[in-house]
Amino acid sequence: xxxxxxxxxxxxxxxxxxxxxxxxxxxxxxxxxxxxxxxxxxxxxxxxxxxxxxxxxxxxxxxxxxxxxxxxxxxxxxxxxxxxxxxxxxxxxxxxxxxxxxxxxxxxxxxxxxxxxxxxxxxxxxxxxxxxxxxxxxxxxxxxxxxxxxxxxxxxxxxxxxxxxxxxxxxxxxxxxxxxxxxxxxxxxxxxxxxxxxxxxxxxxxxxxxxxxxxxxxxxxxxxxxxxxxxxxxxxxxxxxxxxxxxxxxxxxxxxxxxxxxxxxxxxxxxxxxxxxxxxxxxxxxxxxxxxxxxxxxxxxxxxxxxxxxxxxxxxxxxxxxxxxxxxxxxxxxxxxxxxxxxxxxxxxxxxxxxxxxxxxxxxxxxxxxxxxxxxxxxxxxxxxxxxxxxxxxxxxxxxxxxxxxxxxxxxxxxxxxxxxxxxxxxxxxxxxxxxxxxxxxxxxxxxxxxxxxxxxxxxxxxxxxxxxxxxxxxxxxxxxxxxxxxxxxxxxxxxxxxxxxxxxxxxxxxxxxxxxxxxxxxxxxxxxxxxxxxxxxxxxxxxxxxxxxxxxxxxxxxxxxxxxxxxxxxxxxxxxxxxxxxxxxxxxxxxxxxxxxxxxxxxxxxxxxxxxxxxxxxxxxxxxxxxxxxxxxxxxxxxxxxxxxxxxxxxxxxxxxxxx
Length: 661
Description:
Elements: E1 2-9, H1 16-24, E2 33-39, E3 44-50, E4 64-65, E5 71-79, H2 82-92, H3 103-114, H4 116-122, E6 125-133, E7 138-143, E8 152-156, E9 159-163, H5 181-190, E10 203-205, E11 210-215, H6 216-227, E12 238-239, H7 243-252, H8 259-277, E13 284-287, H9 292-302, E14 310-316, H10 324-334, E15 337-343, H11 345-349, H12 355-359, H13 368-379, E16 384-386, H14 391-395, H15 399-411, H16 416-427, H17 431-441, H18 454-465, H19 470-477, H20 484-487, H21 510-520, H22 522-537, E17 541-543, H23 549-555, H24 571-577, H25 597-602, H26 606-612, H27 615-621, H28 626-638, H29 644-659
Parallel strand pairs: 13-14, 13-16, 14-15, 16-17
Antiparallel strand pairs: 1-3, 1-9, 2-3, 4-5, 5-6, 6-7, 7-11, 8-9, 8-10, 11-12
Helix pairs in contact: 2-3, 3-4, 7-23, 8-24, 9-10, 9-24, 13-22, 16-18, 17-18, 21-22, 28-29
């Protein structure tokens, strides 16, 4: 796990001093070593920060040159099938001489033998790669299939530049802090900035499963376009793998075996995947929440280890947010070397000031706080930790999948105009009337229908009733601010995956559509960003075995009945887990990995929030609608409404913006 940077210029390359400043910005991603290489004549500069995981010797150092001398690479990530690829290359080229045992060297050898694109199709792992071709004088950038590793790129001044994190690009001459208001509008919709956008104009994220090539001719065309006023010409990326192709293939060739055969095959596949991701030359462990996904990963790790696996859990004194007892029970059954840390409210609050620097651009998933804390705990014992992320998107795990399906099932028989009339009527009832009426009938209702904020539930339900189709319904469900274009001054919302459907998506049922949406958006741009930045902030490598390409593709061959059955999510993954862990240790309501933001904003975080939401400050900055924000803030403080998610998005932007000064 490392950090990569680089730049390509029409004129001379970056100075070694500037290149070193870029790499130094990523010290946390690679504290073990730094490397820089440049070719002034070609205008290319590559930099690398190393977190040594495999081949700890100097033969694993980067930037690395191919044996043939043609290619130079910087690489962030891990290739889990590198030993198989090494054997394949040795068989094809018996004369090839290997200098070390790193996966980086295998990538270079593959590029030398097969070329960049074919090599990418053969790699199983997580990666962000940059390869310079000395013969063709072009630079290739590539990102792994599911988006585990980040890669930003764009034009800064007179050069094309790239980096694992935005902070490394800011040291370049010509950098401008111009905020992209379209990206900002999208951020307030989702609480993250969806790829390929970034918060800054002219800088993009490379899409998962994509690669691009850029040459001096492309930079010249860009410069010419700017000079004659036709705008920016960004290099176009191409997909070497598409999730939609995997989905389509799964539909054409559905799994035809029995439930036992499917469970056997999934367990075998996961054992192999987890086993390959346990390869490390440094201490390794796993995050363990006690839920289905992390428990499955840990169980399959322990099944293949002669020694107790080290596992890590964060505990909270607030019962509604604490899963530590469940994790402890699973760890005890499996016999892991378990570490838990109960953190105080102050310890969690102390993380808040770090967040703008950790995430580099606005990011408002509040579980970023416990994720950082559990990564910090794990780093005290190990350098690599496996996680269970990805199971929800592949095996229908989120609660919202179930209740969105129920809502649409109840709504869809009614024509859209009638639904809209009902939505308008419901929205017209004042929140105070809703709260007063609900208080009268609440004692008569079952526990499942007793809510703490009835006006919130009523408003959300009224909003959902009026949507035109199931895609619009799910977009509303996953949205933070429902009208972000009114919140951002001069903002406009970009088209999203919810607005642009692939032909095969029409063949999916609503549950499958929701999993597809999340796998293409929420997973790479929220979940994986959260895990990458939190772990890398403490120099911990995090691996995600459930997102192995073979697991992803196999999951889409399975029928929906093997994922969601009788209201039970992740049915087949549970069946694998119950071969290793008693059912009673796992079966309980799903609990999010969150923190009590709503009460914090009315308590310990209130002074911090008040300063960031100051009317004069907001007006001076000129980005956000002051009256909208103040209305929501005052309603939250009064307790009439719970606007924690909307306010957290605003506060994370404001805190990030303060760091840009």
